[in-house]
User: Fold these one by one.
Assistant:
Number 1:
Amino acid sequence: MEESNKNLKLKIEQLKKEKNCLILAHYYTRKEVQQIADFTGDSLALAQRAADNEADMILFAGVRFMAETAKVLSPDKKVLLPVMEASCSLADSCGAEELKRMKEQYPDHKVVSYVNTSVEVKALTDVCCTSSNALDVVGSFDKEQKIIFTPDANLGGFINNLTGRNMKLWKGACHVHDAVSVKSVEELKAEHPAAKVLVHPECRAEVVALADYAGSTKGIIDYAKNSDSEEFIIVTEPGVMYEIEREAPGKRFYSISRSNSCVECEYMKMVTLENIYEALLHEEPVVEIDEQVRCAAEKSIREMLKIK
Ligand code: SF4
């Protein structure tokens, strides 16, 4: 396995150079996938990199909404997504037609959508956000401005609590983070009482309430790296363990996945070295977006990038 991975990595490296292709990978992808990426990051950092690069082609090692965001921001580039079926339960929970109806019901509301949405939903959105910048994005509106927040009700509730706003929340959730139970965090805490608990705000409010720090994947990595503490319980998708252990060597990390309550994201794990190699070789599957939808979606993503 190690040997075949090594060969594949070499072949990918060669094709990447030949085609001037930039490989972007999310922190939740497999370790070997993150190792061959030119850049790994959370949704915000990946969107920023997709908007600003010199490559001729982008291969997105992640899920579909991320590759769509890259195509929206770099329309003249070929954007490859190795597995078109790599979806996202959160993005799938918000349909464009349903959102259109909600907007008609609340015409005086602005729409803030998490980037974990389809390109069609982004096209109906005023400003996108990620878990890294959601507070800044929501804070960029006047206090009186009414807001619909899609699609993550847990993240939206977290922002409502922090800001004292009363945004209307879409009832969506990420099946990975929403599955984390209070009991599983408490059990790990009992085993490691000195460990700081770092939680992604896509988790339920009662789980976030147990956190010493609640924030985006990148926020969690930075907190662990810069904190004086030596031990951490990591309450998010376990793919982040690769980057966190790299960034904070010598510290001790306990992934919530050990308790079985937080499963891996099966969509993120669909991307493998094999399908990356095939995608690079054949230059497909290619992400295509209707131009009118793309332009409308671009506006909401660029609004976000202007804020942060
Ligand atoms: S971890 Fe959750 S939000 Fe992230 S891609 Fe998977 S299903 Fe979507």
Number 2:
Amino acid sequence: MRSSLDLSLPAVLGTAWFTAGAPGAVDASIATYLEAGGRVLDSARIYGDSEAVIGGWLRAHGEVPGLQLLTKGGHPDPADWLPRLDRGALLHDARTSVAKLGRPADAYLLHRDDVGRPVADVADTLRTLVDEGLTSAVGVSNWSLDRTRELRAALQDRGLDLVAVSDYAGLARPLSEPDFAGEESLDAPTLGWLEETGIPNLSWSSQSGGWFAGVHPRGQFAGAENVRRRAVLEQVAEVAGRRPESVLARWTATISPVVVPIVASRSPERLARTLADLRDPALDPAVANLVAVLDPQGVAGRALLEPGAVW
Ligand SMILES: NC(=O)c1ccc[n+]([C@@H]2O[C@H](COP(=O)([O-])OP(=O)(O)OC[C@H]3O[C@@H](n4cnc5c(N)ncnc54)[C@H](OP(=O)(O)O)[C@@H]3O)[C@@H](O)[C@H]2O)c1
């Protein structure tokens, strides 16, 4: 992988749930992640207190060597859901993020696309964000492959590159109609391109929001195929004598060298277990069984990533 992000621990810490009202849980989450060797926090302007809480944590604890802050902006306002990738909105978002974080971002990702906006215009604004010192690097979340490629070429014309892509990639198959407009799932063509270019996909909701543990059901994961996947995961885990969530965690981290899960939990114990599981090669036979049963004709389970029609 060529990313300037430190992904030597193949997991990014998700911080969308960080709130000023839960300082103990936030401290424990960051401490658990750092202790495991993690160095990249994933935040966004749209995540409520998250950026301010991270900024407060940094002021209280001091800088951690090598800690990298990734944040995202340009998300539509949930009130009207209109695109917000114009120069004014992006500069406003990025400057606000840096003020909340208390320092520049190490990576700034566009949280959504606006397909009506030429990539050259977006690339000019991203160049400005870097020139103003608001971020060292840029990327995209929830962009189609065609638009991502076009943007990358426009960035390269301006002396920049994409540091990361962040799409959903999890075992629960998303329906083609997402829960929130503009969400994108990693599909096989996008994965192939990322492997060619060495750009990482930071998989959001990598544990499918707890769907396989029977919590936090997302409407987008409803359907017989995901019920089948959960049953197979449970069977395979039972045969291996491991927990289903352990097999799931290892699968999310072994799909490809360029696929890096974002992990998040309010429970430091669960976070520590997930971080250990996704690095545990003893889970590989169970992962291989899972893939073999779910996708017998496929190539290393890649078809499992494809979004599906409503069924
Ligand atoms: N770029 C984007 O558009 C985008 C979209 C969504 C998310 N994200 C990023 O991805 C991060 C992670 O998203 P996510 O929270 O949806 O990730 P996730 O890891 O798929 O799900 C975590 C949630 O599932 C629950 N969970 C997971 N495994 C469980 C288990 N075995 N038993 C009980 N509960 C379990 C957790 O509960 P507990 O907290 O109780 O452990 C937590 O609420 C976010 O924080 C954010 O940084 C980005």
Number 3:
Amino acid sequence: MGNIFSNDKAGCDMALSNGATIVLLSTLILSGSDLAQTEWEQELVTWLAEHDQTIYGLGVVGFDLDEIAWNPADFEQEKAFLLALTDLALRRHRWEVLDYDPPFALCYLTDFRKLVECYTAEMVEGPKAWDWFQPPETLSKCPLHQVFVHANGCLLCHD
Ligand SMILES: [Zn+2]
């Protein structure tokens, strides 16, 4: 069992084991939490953090890039932010926070970046709301890990 991360409209996807999924999401939110400035950027990182298998179960937290609440008017900026946080993660940003050495994280992040690169403006179907498992009451960070928390807590505390 594992999780599929996809860009169906471009016909590409990546399958990760449950353990690899935690590594991908943890490295993305460590960098994204430091980079996020706008409300949308903070929501994106919170939404990524919400794909928390400890709360929602193993093998049910994969997503398609189409599920992101892209705004057609701001799409290029929003995509640039997702690429920038992935690039920062690829530079091992704050990996010392993790209590393990993620040897294959660079491969997962490189594959994830390719999915994002292939997602283009024509694929965005109008403004839409975030599809939360459970909407967060506020956008706030874990005091221990300084990453955005979801409605049911911190992905890194749960790991
Ligand atoms: Zn935490």
